[in-house]
Amino acid sequence: MPVSGAKGVSTMTLPVPTLDHVVINARDDMDRAADIYRRLGFTLTERGYHSLGSMNHLAMFGTDYLELIAVPKGATSGRLDLLNFSFGLNGLVFGTEDSAVTYAALSKAGVPVEPPVEFTRPVKFAGGQGDARFRTVRMKAGIVPYGRVYYCHHFTRELVWRDEWRHHGNGVVAIARALIVDPDPVKGIKLYEDMFGTEAVRDIAGGKSLVVGNSRFDVITAAALEEQFGNAVPDPEGRPAYMAGLSFRTTSLGKAARALQDGQIAGVMRSKDRVVVPAREAMNAVLEFIE
């Protein structure tokens, strides 16, 4: 969608929404988070340490990934802002191939973004190692009431999307959906309309949905979430708006169910078209597996 300027329509266009990754906040309890997500059937990369002071594990899929993020216990510097957020889904990250262009287009459109920030993370892999480099463009503080929304520009994709990390016991190959609860979905979707244009947004039962490549972000009411997931929903912890959960595409529901059984995950609900893990078993994020 072209961004209009004072002298008419410019050649600068809004970004196309593509999914880079999603983030589960483990606060300062990474050991527990990593154990849980391995038992959920995900293959996790080795623990990595960002130059900004956080640490992570990744579950890599075809073109996107899941990130577990935390700060070390007892940390007094670094990404201490992670401690201000609840456990659970905390970050929705869009992809960009040129963060400078993305920042310029969003700024011109009036989207409240911070200037790009660059950081690194050492990566070890079979036969070598290197420094993964990233540049992010984030929303300004206070704009997103339910977590962190930003863009990520990868300079070293070969150190992140490695095939040996893409194979998972639960058969997951992609992120199909992220779920956001907002008491007013029309208001909640407005940021994404500003970021990508109204044509990227659809009406759905109980709210609105943003088309994100082959995935989608659903902004729905708490009642709509409960209608879909019953008592498997996360604890909002007093938050009127929050990121609630994820849907994963798997090659086999049977494979996903077996992985969850092997991992001794409690309360799993299975039907003919999905397998659901209650939020209480997945760091306060409801997880759905679909084919």
From TrEMBL:
Note the Gene3D superfamilies from the entry.
2,3-Dihydroxybiphenyl 1,2-Dioxygenase, domain 1
Q: Output the SUPFAM superfamilies linked to this UniProt entry.
A: Glyoxalase/Bleomycin resistance protein/Dihydroxybiphenyl dioxygenase
Pfam families from the UniProt entry: Glyoxalase_3
InterPro entries recorded: Glyas_Bleomycin-R_OHBP_Dase, Glyoxalase-like_dom
* Domain Glyoxalase-like, chain residue ranges per copy: 19-191
Q: What is this protein called?
A: Glyoxalase-like domain-containing protein
Source species taxonomy: Bacteria, Pseudomonadati, Pseudomonadota, Alphaproteobacteria, Hyphomicrobiales
